[in-house]
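pls read this protein:
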Amino acid sequence: MYRIITDSACDLKVELIQKYKIEMIPIYIYNEDKEYRDKVSIMPEKMYSMMDEGAFFKTAQIPPKIFEDSFRNHLSKGDKCLYIGFSSGISSTFNSSVVARENVLKDYPKGEIIVFDSRLTCGMLGLAVLEAAKMLDANRGIEEIIDMLEHYRDHGEHIFTVDNIEYLFKGGRVSRTSAIIGGMLNIKPILEIRDGKLEILEKTRGRKKALNRMSDIIKERNHNICEQTVAVGHSNDMKSKDLLIEKITRETECQDYIIEYMGGAIAAHTGPGILAVFFLNKLYNE
């Protein structure tokens, strides 16, 4: 039996993780010299609250030893492992899983450990992991599950906006000059994951225009969004989150959402006030 493993960049609700027996390994987060484990020793709500008070966070990859412990635990019970990982274009965590796999298979040469670089994050990673868990629960073969994951990797859309451009400067996404001018002009950038990396897609002025443009991009990139589950990630701006969902529902007739706080894996680099929508630009098996 395959056991599905992911990391805390996957923004799935706790009840879904528990229902499908998904193992979620926390990413390491640092505030000055204090270490946290994402969604274990620090929850997103607390992290955003600290950010509002001026705190900055950094993330670190999950050490190979953590993956080794997980893989060994499952293989020792006769199970197989499928790790669906955070994009290697954003984090080195996936590389840790590769190292761990090689080390563990030396002791379990007949074991099976699949490590899959999803090139996804947050809600889009969550949607892929959830679909894999559902397929596994329905006794679908591992080849079909990998085929599905490859489709999600190739057709997953991540559309973000952030409220404070200063965090993009801290993360090296914009220059100091751009951050200063952007703050003065109330620039609210729209970002996406492109080839597994976080990139600035467009720049808008004001939160309302950013939300309107996000809705337009969603319509431009998918004609059948009403036929799929859409993930919405947010921080502490509930009003904007509700406005965006209302707009998407009205304009696309989408009714099926997974709504969850954005975890620390991305939030550390984008700051509070982040809002994101995740969907497929082409349905699987369409």
Q: What stands out?
A: The chain has two domains: 2-27+60-154, 156-280. The first strand starts at residue 2 and ends at 7. The mean pLDDT is 89.
